[in-house]
Amino acid sequence: MPLFPSLRFNMRFRQESWLAALLCLLSMGGEVWCNCTAQNIEIAGGNYKLTKELLTGSTLIYNCPEGYFPYPALVRICQANGAWKPRPKTYLPQKCKLVECPDPNVLENGNVSPPQEKYFVDNETTYECYSGYRMRGSPKRVCLPNGKWSGSTTICSHDAGDDCADPGIPAGASRAGNMFGIDDKVTYSCNSNLFLVGSSERVCQENGQWTGMEPECYYKHTYDTSVEISQAFGSAIKNTLTKEEPLDGSPEGRKLRISKEGTLNIYIAVDVSASIEDKYISNTTSVIKKLIQKISSFTVSPNYEIVFFSSEIEEVVNILDFWEKKDVRKDILEKLDTFGINDRSSTGTDLNLVFFTFWERMSFIKTRVGANAFKDHRHVIILFTDGAYNMGGSPAPTLARIKDMVYMNQTGEKEVNSREEYLDVYVFAIGAETFDDDLKSFTVGKAEEKHFFKVKGIDKMYDAFDDIIDENDVKGLCGLHKEFQKTDDNEKRRKMHPWGAFISIRNPNNNHKNCLGSLISKEFVLTAAHCFIFENLPEHVTVDFFEKVRNLQVKKIFLHPKYNINAKVNEGVKEFYDYDVALILLKDPIDISVTVRPICIPCTKETNTALKLGADSTCKDQEQTLLKNHLERLSFLTKIDLNKLYEKTVSAKIGDNRDECISYALRAKGITTNNPKDAVTDNFLCTGGQQPFRDHIARKGDSGGAVFKSYESRTIQVALVSWGTEEVVAASPDERYESTPTSRDFHINLFRVIPFLKSILANNTDDYSPMEFLQN
Ligand SMILES: *[C@@H]1O[C@H](CO)[C@@H](O)[C@H](O)[C@H]1NC(C)=O
Ligand SMILES: *[C@@H]1O[C@H](CO)[C@@H](O)[C@H](O)[C@H]1NC(C)=O
Ligand SMILES: *[C@@H]1O[C@H](CO)[C@@H](O)[C@H](O)[C@H]1NC(C)=O
Ligand SMILES: *[C@@H]1O[C@H](CO)[C@@H](O)[C@H](O)[C@H]1NC(C)=O
Ligand SMILES: *[C@@H]1O[C@H](CO)[C@@H](O)[C@H](O)[C@H]1NC(C)=O
């Protein structure tokens, strides 16, 4: 029988298949299996493939051009009785339907135009907020071929001074909960036909951030692009891989780690059951090889378990070999190359067996290394499957056992949270038809990180993994830091603020001046322009970071071209600090480590990733994320005796609160104008005072230091310490950082000096590698 019958032969087929069906019915009692027919299975506007021709167990897979999806069925299976499941229906002919995007009209406090009942691929929408409401997210969005809207969720919100920003309502969703104070909860659900990926529940935390990640509503035809996968999976796996860094960051520590078995265990399982296409296997092998290659660019050496599975497990690499034999790592790629699937006749898929095998391996490792050492082992399970398991039952109970083992039977929320980073289960839903709800329930890991992915084709995974950046770039990943409880241990504090730089300037009269700065790339330190005087040459300046990284030479100093301290002497401002920003180019690029690492700065692509904003989010989106509240809690560093940095907190007075705050500038020495705005232009953030929070006040030597906001694992600098109204004097060392009612500090808002930063940092010169800024 021809595989792809043309319409011309249809009549004949109809008769034949009718006969066959009758024969089939007659022999149902015996061993005879019946073939399916090609009748009515064509798809208008697309084509189809059969995995095993028209034999029992064959899967019919429909394919449509980009921007379309097969409807009503995505696949059909040939059953033993010779009938397709689902059966083709003449009154609902199979066709390629235009991709639809979820309903954007869920927007609150604004208008979506044009208003339509349904939105299809390439349809454009524009958004407007009612007066009195401010817009965040994209003002214009286009429905993309993957079933998602371009840009980010549009939100129209009041500035009500809430602790957390209005989290909005993603297209196709509805939200319960309209209070955005600390500990307030919002819950989401997706409208019918859609299922929710991300957090269905989010809680406003003290740091002004919502827990978890923004939910998205997926149709069956929605999928993640390779760029989305690379960003989300890449940043999650990088977090795991960089956490594996030896704690002391020393080269010695690194060597030690390599000579021993690693403590990162990666388990990869690939579904090769008949429900998945043939070429998938060689393609999957190249995808896994790519992933392993990427991981090996980091200084970690994980142990691997790699299996292909259907009703049985075919093991490519056994993780226990890492304890039994030598040099397994070297052989992995070769093993993948030569691996072939012996028997693909099976139509069963036993997902539970996969989890059970992994559970067994973990138990063995635990016995082998001892329960105590096992506590430090991280486990990452990566699963590629369509989720159509039909044997072995649900893997949920086995997964629960794995969790128990890694979480050490802890059930309290706090205890589980503290063990969460030791287990990640990523699921890549792949195949013509995937069982998304089920698969989603098998993901495990931090709610802030995406663990469920819907993949259009395995080749997309290759691109996605290929785009994950290498360790050399990751080491420079901005804003990464470690979190510790309040501590006096200088090294620990250093790891919390690894960007902190100490700048010493030797003036011609041999007077020394000290400032702080922040490392923002391998080559650049950001600081205040007023730290320098006109006569300063690069050789007068040195930069220190931490113990062994000190006394660094400087190649060049760039002051903001508009910085001019004397600009307003005649207008009653003796010292004018507008544009008080400078960049120091180091003579040699710095070796990035856990104790010396750059901070993120606004309007760069990396900061979009650090803030988990979409790739096409703008500079403005970043500003509205970082400086959204009328009182924004920020931190700065203060230097306490020899090169020790302590974190202090302030609240920036923004919006309606700003005028009152800057009015105190008139009390500063050397200011005789009546208009505070003469001295404090829009380029400054204002902090200090005791209402509603008692702020800390910076001291002289803190000039040039970063004013920043820290999230769980990343830190972003939003401003730099410039000048203040008073030097606070107090009895005790602790008290001297507390603001008086009238003391105010002014910090250069980095969002206002982006053109300057860009002109230098984004320049493609031979001296240093350029930084990627956002277009707008
Ligand atoms: C099914 O098709 C195969 C090959 O196309 C053929 O050998 C077999 O006899 C057919 N079975 C029935 C019951 O028609
Ligand atoms: C939306 O897309 C559909 C299908 O392509 C098209 O018919 C319709 O005109 C589009 N609507 C607008 C407003 O562009
Ligand atoms: C996937 O398989 C096809 C056919 O075997 C091959 O042409 C293609 O190069 C493969 N892609 C990758 C990324 O391995
Ligand atoms: C967890 O509980 C199981 C069953 O109750 C027990 O066998 C196991 O030893 C416990 N594990 C730990 C780490 O306490
Ligand atoms: C950066 O590049 C621009 C355009 O090429 C040039 O005008 C500018 O002078 C450069 N800036 C520096 C600091 O080299």
UniProtKB/TrEMBL annotation:
Signal sequence annotation: 1-34
InterPro entries: Compl_C2_B, Peptidase_S1_PA, Peptidase_S1_PA_chymotrypsin, Peptidase_S1A, Sushi/SCR/CCP_sf, Sushi_SCR_CCP_dom, Trypsin_dom, TRYPSIN_HIS
Disulfide bonds: 129-156, 190-217
Gene Ontology terms: biological process: complement activation; innate immune response; proteolysis; response to bacterium
Localization of this protein: Cell surface; Secreted
Occurrences of domain Peptidase S1 (ranges): 477-762
Major site of localization recorded for this protein: other
GO cellular component: cell surface; extracellular exosome
Residue intervals of the Sushi domain: 32-98, 99-158, 162-219
Keywords: Disulfide bond, Glycoprotein, Hydrolase, Immunity, Innate immunity, Protease, Repeat, Secreted, Serine protease, Signal, Sushi
Cofactor(s) annotated in UniProt: Mg(2+); Mn(2+)
CDD domains in the record: CCP, Tryp_SPc
Record-linked SUPFAM superfamilies: Complement control module/SCR domain (SSF57535), Trypsin-like serine proteases (SSF50494), vWA-like (SSF53300)
The protein's name: C3/C5 convertase
Organism: Larimichthys crocea (Large yellow croaker)
